[in-house]
Specification:
Helices cover 53% and strands 14% of the residues. It is built from 11 helices and 6 strands. The protein has a 4-stranded antiparallel sheet. A hairpin with a 2-residue loop joins β1 and β2. α6 packs across α11.
């Protein structure tokens, strides 16, 4: 069973990484661009060294130069098996079948498009000024607002409305929380301490975001826990991460922006005709 599972994985991996063109399939995979080195010959057809190295790198996630002799032998056998099945597929005319031909063309398009995108990004790397600009544009996300608040949690809207009426009558929020709150924070005056938006239910965050420090919610706020009366004590900005600690993330943003602009330029210059009925 172990051997069967490994062989199945090998075939799936090869299929996912080969991205052959239909022309290559029809000619038994010969291609001068693959280089002169040969890893093995199968029925007179060579398997180039370059194909072996790409297979090991992509399908096996290994450095070809670090394979043990046994691992190299197994990887070679994998490609021999693939070559034999490819030859049988060609013999039976599979590359001429519409579904197979479409799959091959899709793989070819995907590989060339991905390779062109990577080449463009390599030739147009993100600059320090661009990274700084993206960093500053995303400070809101990188350093979100934190809230310091209290709440009084009760079971019904009517109870929350009654609490608000008591606050309007001059009752102390913390004392009222100790008396009426149902949640675990009641004994400490409803104190929630400092927290981020991500750590609280959205209705609470939305209500607090619309409040000024020192004010309480004028209507009950419902969450999955019950009904809340909120007191916003203060807000602050969290400390953003240093630019150098998220440089790769920022570079990915710039790369996507550059690539989108490049593709739009290509699209604008292209003639694209949709078939008419």
């Amino acid at each position: 069973m172990k051997t069967f599972r490994r062989s199945s994985l090998v075939m799936v991996s090869i299929a996912a990484t080969a991205a052959c063109t239909q022309d290559a399939a029809n000619t038994g995979g010969s291609n001068e661009n693959l280089g002169p080195g040969t890893i093995v010959t199968v029925n007179g057809e060579r398997i180039p060294e370059s194909l072996f190295r790409i297979y090991v790198l992509n399908a096996l996630q290994r450095n070809p130069d670090e394979l043990t002799p046994a691992e190299r032998e197994q990887a070679t056998e994998d490609l021999v098996r693939f070559k034999l099945l490819e030859a049988e597929a060609i013999e039976r005319g599979l590359p001429g079948e519409r579904t197979v031909a479409a799959e091959l063309e899709l793989q070819r398009l995907n590989l060339l498009a991905r390779s062109m995108a990577l080449r463009y990004i390599e030739e147009n790397p993100a600059t320090d000024s661009e990274l700084q600009s993206v960093y500053e544009e995303n400070l809101e996300r990188l350093a979100p607002t934190e809230f310091k608040a209290r709440h009084i949690l009760v079971e019904s809207s009517d109870e929350a409305t009654a609490v608000i009426a008591q606050l309007e009558g001059g009752s102390n929020f913390a004392e009222l929380a100790e008396q009426r709150a149902d949640g675990p924070t009641g004994p400490n005056g409803g104190d929630l301490g400092w927290f981020s938006a991500a750590s609280m239910p959205p209705p609470i965050v939305q209500a607090l975001s619309a409040m000024a420090p020192g004010t309480y919610s004028s209507t009950p706020v419902q969450s999955e826990f019950g009904y809340h009366v909120l007191l916003l004590e203060d807000t602050r900005r969290s400390e953003p991460p240093a630019l150098d600690t998220i440089r790769q993330e920022l570079r990915s943003v710039v790369d996507r922006q550059r690539l989108d602009t490049f593709v739009r330029t290509l699209r604008d210059a292209a003639t694209v005709d949709l078939p008419t009925d």
